[in-house]
Prior knowledge:
By secondary structure, the chain is α/β, with parallel strands linked by helices. The chain has one domain: P-loop containing nucleotide triphosphate hydrolases (Rossmann fold, 3-Layer(aba) Sandwich). The chain is about 30% helix and about 15% strand. It contains nine helices and seven strands; from the N terminus they run H-H-H-H-E-E-H-E-E-H-E-H-E-H-E-H. The termini are close together. Pfam families: MMR_HSR1.
Amino acid sequence: MFGLRLRPWLQPGIRVCTGSQQSVHKLASLQKATTLSPKKVQSLLYPFSELEGYLDRSVDRTPFQLFHPSLKDMLEAEKLYCSTPTHKIDYYVSAERMDHAPALKQPEVCFIGRSNVGKSSLIKGLFSLTPEVEVRVSKTPGHTKKMNFFRVGKAFTIVDMPGYGHKAPQDFVDMVEPYLYTRKNLARTFLLVDGSVGLQRADLIALEMCEEIRRPYVIVVTKIDKCGQGALLTNLLNLQDVVKRQTTSCFPQPILVSSLHFWGIYLLRCFIAHVTGSIKLTDTSQS
Length: 287
Ligand SMILES: Nc1nc2c(ncn2[C@@H]2O[C@H](COP(=O)(O)OP(=O)(O)O)[C@@H](O)[C@H]2O)c(=O)[nH]1
Ligand SMILES: [Mg+2]
């Protein structure tokens, strides 16, 4: 049901982002990734398809496939993540307090989650076509104590928020909460949850906070490469249950990613482009 027709979109003339002097990972570009075997491409593009076979027939798959853009749309979205002289992608500024946050007009998305859940790695993955954009990935939990703003031309801004849960609950109260309440141009919040360990207490607190704030948010399940598929599926179904029972502002589809292997990165790029109004999807129906 997820059969892909790749060839029509691999015509010459489609702009491929080649990146800068620094080396670009071979999977950073979707167009390059589509030269892999169809099965590999399938799991890169739609990581949930890997798990689908393990699901009992009785489980409703619909919530996992609500956002299912075509390859063409994903290629279109990818162009936004290529820096050009007229569409610059760069680290803009950091802010330690909400009143230091830059006043920006373009739609914004932010990444929140526990320290070490993979926020910075994910942003690095999204910007992997422009490796010159410096996104710090820390080995020490709680490193990101500031809000880091990255501009994607005039299209949108991505904000890497300080992590919470590990020696940093204060950052959460001081920065994350006020930001989520007051940021006018915030189009979507991405709440990251580590798929290899499942929902933790701190995640549930964050979830409750997002519910209280009542702005639309989406759960991104990170590090899906780090555990077996059985464990991942168990964590995912538990998460799905919590989302169904306890949330009203959460998008029902969790987005599965591995920043290490690029699984789900293209889908998330497209999702961000879509929710910020930067692209118009041509087809969201299942292929
Ligand atoms: N296996 C695996 N490790 C990851 C992934 N994403 C991040 N990590 C690792 O998790 C650690 C924390 O990542 P980081 O992006 O700094 O987390 P942050 O504190 O939320 O910004 C780092 O050692 C990363 O290399 C992933 O998709 N798979
Ligand atoms: Mg970080």
